[in-house]
Specification:
7 helices, Deoxyribonuclease I, Chain A, single chain, five-stranded mixed beta sheet, six-stranded mixed beta sheet
């Protein structure tokens, strides 16, 4: 029998091949029960065996060459048997994979940016919401992790980066995000840090914006209410790695 995870992490690595050593070092240090990765930009065959078979983890890599891709890693001492990794019907471009761990379904999600096809982004967010609604109706716990490519509110964008007409900050995107949350999910990091206006997870890779912490919060751990109520710690690890995103780690009692 697998047990319920007590630590869940998500990280958009922006190209796993460029950051394999960083990912392995981070994994060895943090040892989250469940790890969700996004924007792999690599097929499984292009990923080192050290990651493909990360020590102590069941691993599932769902990626294509040079674009998109998600992964899900589950610690073997949490799930003694390999979980069943699945894709909802709305998966495209290798953007979502899920697995049940100790009765909790965890999904690694990479929402389209929307710059090239905004309608595809909105359709994906709607499908994600309807999928979450199925768990809500069933009373089944769900955790949605990943790069959702929406800054939920103004507090989630540094004042110098706030642009009302920028994709990722549009009212219709934020409304769709709130509808997703209305399906029984809690934005765990914001719930634990309601007034922190310096809490970001992505920084444009120029003008030392990361060093100056002029960023956006677009990477999330959304958890069903009962699980979210047991969260004990959450952090965006701005100091980790050279991706334009930071890992986000949440711990539960």
């Amino acid at each position: 029998m697998s047990r319920e995870p007590t630590s869940i992490a998500t990280w958009n690595v922006n190209g796993i091949r460029a950051r394999q050593a960083q990912a392995l070092e981070w994994l060895a240090r943090e040892r989250p029960d469940v790890v969700c990765l996004q924007e792999l930009k690599a097929t499984p065959e292009q990923i080192q065996a050290a990651l493909w078979e990360a020590e102590g983890y069941w691993s599932y890599w769902h990626g294509g060459k040079a674009y998109s891709g998600v992964a899900l890693l589950v610690r073997r001492d949490v799930a003694p048997e390999r979980p069943a990794f699945e894709h909802p019907p709305f998966d495209f471009e290798q953007r979502i994979v899920s697995a049940a761990v100790g009765g909790v379904t965890v999904a690694s999600v990479y929402v389209p940016n929307g710059g090239k096809d905004f309608d595809a982004k909105m359709r994906f967010l709607e499908a994600l919401e309807l999928w979450a609604a199925e768990f809500q109706r069933a009373g089944a716990p769900l955790v949605v992790c990943g790069d959702l490519n929406v800054a939920r509110a103004d507090i989630d964008v540094h004042p110098k980066e706030r642009k009302p007409k920028a994709i990722g900050q549009l009212p219709e995107e934020r409304a769709r995000f709130e509808r997703l949350l209305s399906r029984g999910l809690v934005d765990v990091v914001r719930a634990m840090h309601p007034d922190d206006d310096q809490l970001f997870t992505w920084w444009a890779p120029w003008r030392n914006l990361r060093q100056r912490n002029i960023g956006w919060r677009i990477d999330y751990v959304l958890a069903s209410e009962a699980l979210a109520s047991r969260a004990t710690a959450s952090v965006s690890q701005r100091e980790v790695g050279t991706s334009d995103h930071a890992p986000v780690v949440v711990k539960f009692a």
